[in-house]
Amino acid sequence: MKRITRVFHNWSVTSKFVGIFVLILTVSSIITGVIIYVQAYNSAISQARSVMEQNLLQTKTTIDEKVDMIENISEIIAFDSRIQTLLDSAFINESFQLQDYRYNVAPIVDNIMRQNTYIHSIHVYMNNPTIPEIFELYDGFYSMDRIRGDGEYVRFMKDVQNSTDWRGLHLENLLTTRPDVKAKADVFSYNRKILSGRNNEVNGLVEIEVTQSVLFQPLEDANTEVGSVLVLDNNHKVASNNNTPLSDAMINELTGVMPGDNSRLNMLATVGGVRSIVISVPLTGPDLRLVGVFPVSNFVDKVNQSIRTSFMVLIAALIILSLLVYYLTVKLLSRMKVLLKAMKQVREGSIDVSVPVVWNDEFTQMALSFNHMTTRIHDLVETVYKSELLEKDAELKALESQINPHFLYNTLATISWVARKAKAPDIVKLSDSMAKFYRLVLNKGNSETLVANELDMVGAYLAIQKFRFEDRFDAVFEVEERVRNCYTLKNILQPLVENALIHGIEPKRSHGTIIIKAALEDDQVVIRIIDDGVGMPRDMIEDVIAGKVLNTRGSGFAIANITKRLQAFYGESQHIELYSRQGIGTVITLSFAARGMNNV
Questions:
Q1: Nearest to residue 33, comparing CAs of 308, 321, 297, 319?
Q2: pLDDT at residue number 137
Q3: Residue 243 DSSP symbol
Q4: Any idea where the Histidine kinase domain is (predicted)?
Q5: Which of 2, 35, 262, 571 could form a Cys-Cys staple with 282, CB 3.0–4.6 A?
């Protein structure tokens, strides 16, 4: 199983789609086909059993009609008053008796024979010994002495309970005296006792014989193409068949399933190693049973043929659908391959990649997402790149003309030493502030610094500017102690303080104040630079916010420059607000995510 799973995992996506589709369709088709075949098979067998039973019942009805006719004819003869009178009267060989016999009694049997041609013979046995033998030879009337030695007749005559009796298959009774004539025909005979009209004693016996072939003529009309139809007697011997004889072994198998009573039978059984429909119905009159044996294959061949045809159609449909699934899968995966190729290009470093967008399906959504992702990556990379350029530019501007920081520090230290020697404290203070400012600006090449260092750098810068502005402004710091250990980008406050000084305080022409506030508010570092300078008109505020003002005179950086640096480093967690009113002053507020030394 693991090997099969491993092989399946190594298949291509197209092979997996087509394979799974073929498997599902094949399994479902097989299950459906089996169910349909079983239902069709059972339906065909059930219908065949019903139709074949109806055919046998029709054959039985035709045979029963002949049996009933024979029984009715025997009743007509036995209860004919002329025959009863003849058998009851003593025959004294008078001429009137001879004429009455020849013209009134003898034609009775002759007329019946003429009207019912299927009757083989009619025998009237007389128990009256006075009737001469001569009549027996010509007219069908015979002496009872002819049958007294036959056990079948003796048994029937002694049975006082029955007045009629069907005799099984036997050779015909030839009552002629010619030696060249022998009994040849196989007949069934119906016997009826003739009772005396005076005392109800048995005066005679009427026997009607019908040949086997005539009685079972309807079997010749039975459908022999689908099976065998035969007649079995009470000893399970074949009394007749429709020229499709069964072997003795098959007859023995049939006798094993025959009911012991006169009930009908309709069942499936194996006869001669062949699954067959066995139907049995009892016949009226003779103790016989009409049996039909119909192989099941004769009825399900069309079902099998239909199943084979359906199977071929299913195979053709499966091939066509598999090709269609293969085509659709290839077309869909071709779009996926375009996306995979683009992903490979991105992986190799080419981020300026996009895939064509067609239609409006899931693959289109993937293409749109990929294009959006590459565009976003491109923008982020470009933003970071620009941020790095801005950072380098800020450092270069801060270090303009300062090739060797150690040389700068040494020079400023020398100036401070000379100023002390010359007893010039202002120069000492100025040189010390400048040395501190540049040391903090350089920050050992790091892009981040503590808020405390950034504030110290602003303090050194303002100390230097006080010499320039001759103490025309005051600098006030309102800083929470806990914010000092938070990290910030370096060189973001000094440009803003420089803008406040140059654009706010200097044009005022009077004493001013710059306030730097720093605090923690809701996990955000919030720094405000407030001045009471000349302020800015509304249109200038909008230009600054829109980034149109990119440079300022002096050594400060533009607000737009600082905004881009904060966006590149902090993303959406940073925010800059600018509020100003002419004649009142300006407030610049910076806020970004707090990140202290304990969670660096």
A1: 308
A2: 43
A3: S
A4: 489-596
A5: 262
Residues of the chain with confidence (pLDDT) below 70 = 1-2, 4-10, 93, 133-139, 175-183, 221-224, 241-245, 260, 359, 385-387, 389-414, 416-419, 421-423, 428, 435-436, 438-445, 547-558, 597-600
Phi, psi of 477 (to 5 degrees): -110, 125
Q: Give the pLDDT of residue 408.
A: 58
Distance CA 230, CA 289 (A): 8
Which residues lie below 8 Å from residue 172, measured CB to CB, with a gap of 6+?
Answer: 120, 121, 183, 184, 185, 186, 187, 209, 211
Bridge-based pairing of strands 202-211 and 121-126 is antiparallel
Q: What are phi and psi of 175, to 5 degrees?
A: -100, 10
119-166 pLDDT, tens digit each: 988 999 988 888 776 554 446 788 888 888 888 888 988 888 889 999
Q: What span, in angstroms and rounded, lies between the C-alpha atoms of 242 and 102? A: 42
> What whole-number distance in Å separates Cα of residue 336 and Cα of residue 6?
24
What the block records as the tokens of 394 is 């800020």
Dmax (CA) for the chain in angstroms is: 203
Tokens at 162, concatenated: 């029955």
Q: Which two tokens stand for residue 557?
A: 């950086």
pLDDT of 598: 52
Strand, helix or coil for residue 238: strand
pLDDT of residue 563: 81
Residue 213 is inside which H or E element, if any?
helix 212-215
Give residue 558's pLDDT. Answer: 57
- In the three-class reduction of DSSP (H, G, I as helix; E, B as strand; rest coil), residue 75 is classed as helix
DSSP string across 368-399? HHHHHHHHHHHHHHHHHHHHHHHHHHHHHHHT
Q: Say if CB 156 and CB 207 are below 8 A apart.
A: no
What sections of 443-491 are H helices per DSSP?
451-469
Instruction: Write b or e for each residue in 150-164: b if 16 or more Cβ atoms lie within 10 A of its Cβ, otherwise e.
Output: eeebeebbeeeeeee
Q: How far is CA 310 from the centre of its chain?
A: 20
Torsion over CA: 411, 416, 418, 419 (sign): positive
Distance, in Å, from the CA atom of 241 to the CA atom of 217, rounded to the nearest integer, reads 10
Are the beta carbons of 587 and 580 closer than 8 angstroms?
A: yes
- Give tens-digit pLDDT for 34-83: 888 888 888 888 988 898 889 888 888 988 999 999 999 999 999 988 88
Residue with tokens 């030696």: 179
Q: Which of 233, 224, 226, 225 is nearest to 251 (CA)?
A: 233
Integer Cα distance of 211 and 357 in angstroms: 95
Contacts of 520 (CB under 8 A, 6+ apart): 480, 482, 483, 486, 526, 594
**Contact indicator for 42, 277 with CB cutoff of 8 Å:** no
Q: What is the CA 543 to chain-centroid distance, rounded?
A: 65
Q: What is the pLDDT of residue 179?
A: 52
Q: How far apart are CA 372 and CA 108, in angstroms?
A: 117
Burial of 219 (0-12, 13-18, 19+ CB in 10 A): buried
Model pTM score:
0.52
Hey, is 103 helix, strand or coil?
helix
The encoded tokens of residue 115 equal 């009207």
Separation CA 487–CA 496 (nearest Å): 18
3-state SS assignment for residue 41: helix
